[in-house]
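Researcher: Hi, I'm a grad student and pretty new to this. My advisor asked me to get structures for two proteins we've been looking at. I'm not sure of the right format, so I'll just paste the first sequence and hope you can take it from there.
Model: That works fine. Here's the first sequence with its structure tokens right after it:
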Amino acid sequence: MTARRTTAPSPSLGEPVRISGRDGAWDQVRADLEKHEVAVLHARLADWRPDRAGGPRLRALLGRDWDRYLEMTHPDVRTRFAASRVLLKFAAAVALRVPPQAVELGYGPTGRPYLRGYDAVDISLSHTEDLLLIGLATKGLIGVDAERADRPLYTRGLHRHVCTPHELTVLERLPAQRRGAALVRMWTLKEAYSKAIGQGLRFRFTDFGFSGDGRPARVLAPDGAPGTGVEWQFRTFSVDGGYVVSVAVSDAGFGGTRDTAARTMLDPRVVAAVAEALGDDAEAEDRDGEDELLDW
């Protein structure tokens, strides 16, 4: 768990944005980043399924992930991997204001993705069945997770293995018909928080918990005592009528990066010198290449 902050966090989270293909509501994603310093977007797998599984355009978009993609033998796994990474790159490209193929992903020791060469935008990824979920944050860490709303976690007895003593007590006090939904909410919040701090499933879910009675979510110790302060925000949403989505965001307290364009990281004198050396023809060629790659 993290040190507590005593000042109020920046504006709360906006609703997840539905992105139906590459020409989706990217303006809303930009607006959310500007207003909330956080943007969450979701899409259907069918909208981001590559038309050509081994084509050069997909290879250019996947970049360093191309070899990993080729090693996957199950068609559905390969498709979901490619679609989720391409969506993530398009989303990051919106924040960085660069072509999607210019975005390079890296992965931490637990598999947590990050943007190579640009740490002012934090990213998170989740997918389940045909739902893809992306989180972007410029004020701190972010984690996202999605599950089917009707996933039978409680009836399968999973609560005994992933809940703290306090959470078990809260669940037992709820009417039987509400326990399943409460556990799905708890599960997605745990996943989102553990992803945000870079632990994934290495962080035992019985070591931290959340309230399950409808109160604003916050991290709790196993006995129900507060585990984090106002530096963390949590929200749970229902999307596409059948999925529960949870988001965990930390506010580092230094203010978000309002101008996230990649060019702002560069010395303008260097940029000007390179542009002059390359000339207008190179710039036009780069734009043409961008248009071609977008038609993947």
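Researcher: Oh nice, that was easy. Here's the second one.
Model: And its structure:
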Amino acid sequence: SLFLPAVTWKRLVASTKKRSGGGKKRDDPGDPLDPPALQLSHDNHVKKSLSCANLSSYERVVVQASTGELLRCLGEFLCARCHRLPRLSPGEPALWLRAVDRALLLQGWQDQAFVTPANVVFVYMLCRQVVRGDRVASERELRATLLTCLYLSYAYMGNEISYPLKPFLVEEPTAGREAFWDRCLAVAEAT
């Protein structure tokens, strides 16, 4: 549980399984076309570099991650950070984000999904600064904060000039607007 907050997204480390087949194997490890620092590992198909030379043999640096993997990591980060919410599962934050994305797609506010790896990382960077586990008292409060970070991500990285507020609100639309904008200001001040 303490492992995930220590991991940065630049150097996300995960266990690997051996892949079968895949590519041309070289018999001569001393081939001058493969310098040792950049040799392709035939076990896990990840280019080794000088920066990851100190990693254990069973770990690898993730070069690419799918949206689902990053959403799972975001959920695990939030579960670890929000220790006062023992019933929170790592999949719930992903469902909240995907529900908003789906609603905006169905309403015609966007032509393609916004929840992509780059945008999930951006949401994570906002959450890392804003979500304080000792202050989050309920899943509803965490959801409100996460959706506020998502709204700001849409505003900053989205393709549209503006987005409707309703899919991002946890509270009633009329009463929740002021609380939502207060959270937006709090995120801006925290980052």
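Researcher: Is there anything I should tell my advisor about the second?
Model: You could mention this: Strands lie at 13-15, 59-61.
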